Amino acid sequence: MTTAPLDLFGVDGLLDDEERAIRDTVRRFGDHRLRPSVSEWFESGTVPARDLAKELGALGVLGMHLSGYGCAGTSVVAYGMACHELEAVDSGLRSLVSVQGSLAMFAIHRFGSQQHKQQWLPAMAAGEAIGCFGLTESDAGSDPGAMRMTARRDGSGDGADWVLDGSKLWSTNGTVADVAVVWARTDDGIRGFVVPTGTAGFTANEIGHKLSLRASVSAELVLDGVRLPADAALPGAHGLSGPLTCLNEARLGIVFGALGAGRDCLDTALAYAAEREVFGKPLSGYQLTQAKLADMTVALGSAMLLAVQLGRLKEQGALAPAQVSLGKLNSTRVALDIARECRTILGASGITSEYPVLRHANNLESVLTYEGTAEVHQLMIGQALTGLSAFR
Amino acid sequence: MRIVVCVKLVPDATASRSFEPDHTVDRVSVDGLLSELDEYAVEEALRIRDAASEDGEVVAVTMGPQAAADAVRKSLQMGADSGVHVLDEAIAGSDAPATSLVLAATLRKLGADTGPVDLVVCGMASTDGTMGVVPAMLAERLGLPQLTYANQVTVDDSNGAYRVQVRRDSDLATETVEAAAPVVVSVTDQINEPRYPSFKGIMAAKKKPVQTWSLSDVGVDPAEVGLSAAWTAVVSAEARPPRSAGTVVTDEGDGGTRLAEYLVEKKFV
User: Pairing with B109, which of A27, A304, A381, B229 sits 20 to 30 Å away (CA)?
Assistant: First the structure.
């Protein structure tokens, strides 16, 4: 008789029927549709993002926690559990969903005009249109305010065109996207723009040679005199709080998602240790192995309880940015530690693509630093605790 | 077209399953799920509804303990429009004749309450009992034609009346059989690829109507169902011993002979 790690914490009991049904559906979709191919996608560094987007859209995953415009309108925790199950397969697949739903769609949903919403959201929810998000630049990561991309008015009055120049880096889904939400410096502070990727002057170049998130499209976006109509600007976003609000939205998916990768590693290590015989008995029967398994379970379950708590706070509209930082910092660190520790249980097998463990570990190296590095989140928490900003 | 799909909650086959002291399946201590073979039936019912030129309706019907309602809920999440759950303690331990008795009575009440049913779709068997006879018994009790083990179902509504045609594939022949509605159809696991419930379907399911009926609501005497009324009795049930490691034949020039001897000894040839 064995018990699954998260069952020891009674995590299921914290979910309602709907959240469990959504979790089970994504798990099943992952097991049947994604798991059989994910190792191959990772090794070849290609992922059928367009096909997957349509399938995920049919399921209702894309923008699932948003309301209206063809979105399912689920709870925050349901969204978190969907991310958890997707990332249990691969962080790259959860990234596809995070960027589509929580960065691109959320930005349009929260800050866009009626026209933006009607033009893009139903197609994006269905996975017929793919979105990407351009904030980070080669010299502006943790300090997005240092961005160089500019948007200037050309023409007279309120109807003057916008002309965008500059480049963005690490834009997930970039080369497969139909629309980019791009942030640029204007005379009026930082503004967001809805940019159809077919606009003249827009190019996306895939970033190759990655050792992490290989089952995910990462791109450089180059905007060379991209001319947009006046109404391309997101009317509701002025200043850096716009993109940072989007990031906090996506980070909550990571809080749950990273732990999915951790859970998959731990499940793999448990199964391996039960089968693998060392000195004539199963590896799982040794005290050193059990100490590792117990410690990882404590860390994973505690992190999961925090994740659900943060999700519930968000549902009540009572989640502060520093609390998102708590979760993002904790989940990514816990998951990465678990992945590395599980690798030791698998021994040499742990470094092969036959098992998901090192693939998860490699992915989690990215998840640790994207959407706010661990250090940035430490500073966010530090600021909440001390009242002092130590960013500069 | 008004379609009823009969669904059953079965113990999760991936969990360790056991019997009650009376040799009935323990349905309490194991998580249940919609029988996989019934998912094909729900999917086919939804496809027939959606392909029809007129608006249609799919009603998911189940019987069994409180938890059995989950089978209806899953069907609603996949896209069925409403559900009926026959819940009565007396049902526990019912065999196939009793199951078909209750289902037939339920379908008659459905027809009387809300209009005639054109098509009844069932899975070809349950994944727990695996009798595979309920669809035929149900058709017999309702006096309806039965088209069983369908690998394909087509509905023709061109002449103002429904004609249902199915393809049955056996080892030796492929048969095309048809009947005028109303008709009972059972479908195999080859017929389609059941959909995942969409999140919108999951969200919408809780707002769909589910009626809970007792045996007296459907007009069945409790003495006719349940373990005590079963036509057959399970007198013992024991778990099979785990499979042994098998015999390893090391080829020392006589490998083929020894394999053949083994097969003869086990009466395989």
Answer: B229
ipTM of the complex: 0.84
Considering only CB atoms, which chain B residues are within 8 Å of A58? 198
Q: How big is the A-B interface in CB pairs under 8 Å? A: 37
With an 8 Å Cβ cutoff, are B197 and A28 in contact? no
State the nearest Cα–Cα gap between B234 and chain A, in angstroms. Answer: 28
The reply to whether A28 touches chain B by the CB within 8 Å rule is: yes
Interfacial A residues in 256-315 facing B (CB < 8 Å): none
* CB contacts, 8 Å: A17 with chain B: 73, 206
Task: Give the three-class secondary structure for A152.
Answer: strand
CA angle A24, A30, A36 (to 5 degrees): 145
pTM: 0.89
Chain A interface disruption, residue of B77, B202, B210, most A CBs within 10 A: B202
Among B199, B200, B210, most A C-beta atoms within 10 A, so best to mutate, is B199
B69: exposed, middle or buried (Cβ count in 10 Å: 0-12, 13-18, 19+): middle
Contacts of B73 in chain A (CB under 8 A): 17
Mean residue pLDDT of chain A comes to: 97
Query: Structure tokens of A345?
Result: 């249980």
Six-digit token string for A367: 């998840």
For residue B237, what pLDDT is reported?
82
Exposed, middle or buried, B202 (CB in 10 Å: 0-12/13-18/19+)?
buried
Query: Could you give all domains of chain A from N- to C-terminal order, each with its CATH number?
Result: 5-125 (1.10.540.10), 131-232 (2.40.110.10), 241-386 (1.20.140.10)
DSSP assignment string, B48-109: HHHHSSS--EEEEEEESSGGGHHHHHHHHHHT--EEEEE--GGGTT--HHHHHHHHHHHHHH
DSSP secondary structure letter of residue B25: B
Measured in whole angstroms, the distance separating CA A169 from the mean position of its chain's CA atoms is 16
Please name the member of B73, B74, B198 whose beta carbon is closest to the beta carbon of A60: B198
The conformational region for residue A68 under phi > 0 = left, psi -120 to 50 = alpha, else beta, is left
CATH 3.30.950.30, domain B2-229, yes or no: no
What are the pLDDT digits (tens) for B166-216? 999 998 999 999 999 999 999 999 999 999 999 999 999 999 999 999 999
Under a CB-based contact definition with an 8 Å cutoff, are residues A183 and A132 in contact? no
* CB B43, CB B201: distance < 8 Å: no
Instruction: Over range A6-26, report the average pLDDT.
Output: 96
**Distance between CA A5 and CA B23 in Å, rounded?**
32
